[in-house]
Amino acid sequence: MIFTILLALAFHNVPMQAIILTRASEADSINAVIPEAAVTVLSSFPSELTVDGLVSLSRGNFAIQMGAFNRRANAEAMQKRLTEMLGIPVEVIEDAKMFKVFINGALRESSPCLYIPVYFPETERVATYSTGSEVAQESPVADETAATSRENPEGDQPKEKLPAEPADALTEEPAVSGKELSAAAQTAEPDSLTFTAENTPVRRNFSNLFFLRGNSPWLARYNYFGKSVALVNALIFTIIGSFITMIVLLVVILLNRNRMEKEARLRQYLLEQYQSLIIDYLFGNTGSDDFRKIASDDYRRQVLIDQMIDVSVNLKGESEAKLMKLYRELNLDVDSLARARSIKWHKKIKGFRELAFMGIRDGNDEMYAVLNSKNEILRMEAQISLVRLSDENHFDFLSQMKRPFSLWEQITLHDLIIQHEIPVPDFQKWLSSSNPTVVMFALRMIREFKQKEAEPEIRKVLLHRDQRVSQLAVEVAGDLDLRSTLETMKRMYKFQEYNNCLEIVKSMGKMPEQSMLGFLKLVLDKEDDVQLQIEAVKAIENMGEVGVQALVKVMKSEYKNYNIIVRHVLDRRIY
What we know:
The protein is α+β, with helices and mostly antiparallel strands and about 575 residues long. It contains 24 helices and 9 strands.
């Protein structure tokens, strides 16, 4: 790509000639100076016509057209130069949206019009650049190539172009005969014009190809068939910038990947070495002095902490206490505390975990401080750490929980109790918590650990204002066979939503009581929901012989729906 760009810039002058010859009438600035010719002459077809010869022609009874331009400024520039050279009046006449330069313009409507093309072998171009603007001064002939091509439908072109002559050539006699002059003066329409403009190639060197100074091609603006190549320049710069950025990113990625691979290999090697060293220490084959050198390096120090935590998972009793003592002797607990007090949540989590595994309680205040954090992962890690680090009241933090206690957090704490054989507290003291999710956790733990002594508190929770808590309390009461809650369920039935009503009927079926027979018959009779009726029939059947006899009487009823539901429930092939 770079080679292609350099090659294109090296041959920049060749396509620019075609671009300049087809430029639009609007002149753009160019940072190049083309030397001015020593002489300006008037050329004709087929040979040269001098100034005196043109003056002689102007005395005839016909109009002479010298040029036509899209811009008045260019026409006036030619008018001024011809007036200075010829010393006769030269007019600028607007015709068909063109500005035409005439000698004897008043005769163009009544007499034939001669077309005399003007040829300037060299043109002067001066470009001046200033901040925010560009000014260009150019020969009007060079700017109007496209316009003159349109105004010469006959397609006449000069047969030859004479080289520049000394300054006094303007005063010489015509170099051609009258016959030749008459061949040069051809009758044409008033708006016909043909001439040729040449452009001397701009000389550029390698030093100004890539810098925005001198005659750098990046400072030139062209119109090519109405399309500006400034967009092309911008795209080239964008491609170069993207290519450089891609190379830089590739180098950075490769270096970073190489660094990560080296660190992974080093870490694996160190873990193996430290594991052997820790085992030797636990079995008394080595002392703590062998770890001093390791603990002096930050990276190796962190690897040692990770390895000690991995080993501590499988240690109990004296070995665990010995490893914790080594952890403190090497002041590794200071690193863990620093991480626990960090403002970054992922570092806090790592610090909490290290303190929990090594039994260090100095960071408990930091754990309590994040119990109500918006970060659920941070909250859960703090809860787990507090459960592990507490001596007696492992779940005291529940009293400080204000944010929702998710089901995943509840399951995690339950697994923690089972895995680490943590003493189970009396969860009924959290049934009065203002946090509904904490109450639900307490109900689940009461059911899990069969804490039936919490029956009076559960009876109160049945009337909890949160429907979720009330429904769970009804379910727990049924699972634990807490029959004292039946009357409360019976009274609260008509005030509950559908799901709670359904759970109440199911719980009555779990703890069958003949005193509830009339209530269940009423549910069967008054409720329109089939599921409620089915659960009511199941609860009646669970009462034994009394319930079955009651259902037989219902089957003899003339109400057919009763027969269908009772037969469905009593069919042992279904249940």
